[in-house]
């Protein structure tokens, strides 16, 4: 399998969970593992099928501007982004949803 195959939506690849191989499918920024009987500490701290949201999606969902999002991150009041590559970041949807739910109406 080439490196480009691993990045295409819907492609299956081997994924290791606690040292043992498991089949997984990557689809639209989500990782769906098919090894249901085995869990690790990472999976317990976040949902198994959590989406990754781009900056544009975070802006649309929160109504904040780009500069406000990064200002809030610097002040520690907004979830930090995850680095996906040298020029790509994303946020865990569950963390952004939790932040939205915690805001006063």
Which structural traits does this protein have?
105 residues, alpha+beta, 2 domains, three-stranded antiparallel beta sheet, 28% strand, disordered N terminus
Report the order of strands and helices: HEEEHEHHEEH
Tell me what portion of residues adopts beta-strand conformation: 25-35%
SSE class: alpha+beta
- Apparent shape: globular
Extended strand count: 6
| Biggest pleated sheet | 3 strands, antiparallel
How would you portray this structure in words?
The structure is a single chain. The chain is an alpha+beta fold and 105 residues long. The protein has 2 domains: 3-45, no CATH class; 52-102. The protein has 5 helices and 6 strands. The chain starts with a helix and ends with a helix.
Write a concise synopsis of the structure shown:
By secondary structure, the chain is α+β, with helices and mostly antiparallel strands.
What is this structure's SSE topology?
Layout: H1 3-7, E1 12-17, E2 20-27, E3 30-33, H2 41-45, E4 52-53, H3 55-62, H4 66-75, E5 82-85, E6 88-92, H5 93-102
